[in-house]
Amino acid sequence: MRKNITLEKSYNFALRIIRLCKYLNERRDEYIISKQVLYTGTNIAAFVEEAQQANDRDDFAKSLSSANKNAYKTHFWLRLLKDGDYLGDEMFDSIIADCEELQKILVSSLKTTRATIN
Asked: Is the confidence at residue 1, as pLDDT, over 70?
């Protein structure tokens, strides 16, 4: 069976986001933005999973589009956490790189999918 890199990377990213939020709550006493990043960061994987059950290419593209929107929102929340001094450079650089990689994968998948629809 062929590996689905988007599923794998989005799932692993969701796990990182969960661990990040746990860290923010327990060690940094940050509860507001962490809820937002938890929601959007884990929704990326949820929408990628949903896309696997799509009825057709259009439904697949809609789910991937939602995953992509959540990736961009997550990027925003991560930048706020960094600029608000809740994340150090090393932690931020690592997780933002994963987020940007997911964004690139999702955008590429969306372009390919939309090209096959038209």
From this structure: no
